Amino acid sequence: MKYMQKVIATVMSLSFLLGTLTGCVDSDTEGGKNMETTQIRTLIDGKPLESSKAVMKDGRKRFVPLQAVLEQMGFEVENSPGLIEVIYRTPLTIHGTNLHLDREEDIRMVNGVAYIDMYRLGDISRADVVWDDDASTIMITSVDQDAAAEPPTYEDIEEQPELSGEESMKANYGKYDFSPTLDALSELYEDLDQEGYDVGSVLGFYPAYHHSGYFNTPLDVVAFGWTGGDGEHYGFLTDFGMAPNLEEAPIVIVSPMSHDQPAEVVANNIREFIRIVMMDSSLLYIDYQDEQDYLDQLKEMGVPYLEETEENRAYKRVVLERLEAKLHPPVIRDPYTYSQQVRAEREKRILVPTQDKLGIVNVHPADSGQQHEAIVLDEDIGLRELETFLKSATYAEKLALIRDYHFNLDKYFYHEDGIDEALIREMENLGLHEEIARMNANANG
């Protein structure tokens, strides 16, 4: 995790306020329809901002008048249509940044004046920008531009030691015993391998017991099988420990390269999952209407299933017969719409939606009769807002927040200190020690 170094400044006198009115900006402003003026003050190196223009706010974001702030910090600001050039001159060099307004999401034009998000200002000026919630003040501390620290490179980041096989397995399984079905399947893989048969080539995955190692594998997933492509793997979804055992846990497919929705529920349990992959693993993630639609789509994709040689069919027959005899997986009446039905049934049970689409289905006694509402998690969330939410949140709401937190773990760098610590502390309070262990295991490779 990345934690920004922030400056703790002495609270100054409240006599320096920017603006005295609060209200919506006129709707005819350029890109600032949701902007509101505030009484937030700005201190630059301990001195009040010398401008009559108030700090503005849009949701959680706070915007300062770009030119007024930067010029007080010693920068030169040159404006031209669609472009703002920021220049800082030192005896050693000239630092310049071009801000193209059509690419800058954190710059808003209000009545012809450019306002910039306080943290984006820190990026371009290399200044330390801190929000003081108690004093309702933006604290900006300048730095020596020639000596400003560069961001760390990969060479600067200390590598963590890799986990041993036993450590990886322990992190993956946590409190859960191995799945008897998966154990039996793994034994069959080994037996048939000695006889010259590759079961993985028939079922489309290879069993494994180690943790996934991917940041976007959900924290409550126990990985168990790998397809061999782009890190794609299958896992038991424990729903934060709600599953009584892995035999009864839903099965997900995790596609690490699919950043918007890396995990998707594909089967009710491991035994039904095996029945489906014995037919065709594409039934798990492609929505078919019926058997004819399945055959038509295979033909369109150019999958030569109907053109297999007798030798290939005989090879598969041996593998499938051995699987049937050893595991006796249940019959699936409609395999062509099976996974769609599984996902639809889960969606009906979701109490709180989450950004990864898995949602929270956990029913807790303390939540009885309560309505659930999610909190939006983004990089601008404040520590006070977060702590206030956690004090009154339901169990399901807290789990939804934690799922969203992990979903964005490698994307979000929270502007306020203490966000990561508060969420990890809440996970500990909820007893999610195994989920924390999996998160730490990912960091250790």
From TrEMBL:
Biased composition (Acidic residues): 153-165
Domain of life of the native organism: Bacteria
Annotated region (Disordered), positions in chain: 147-166
Name assigned to this protein: Copper amine oxidase-like N-terminal domain-containing protein
Native organism: Paenibacillus oenotherae
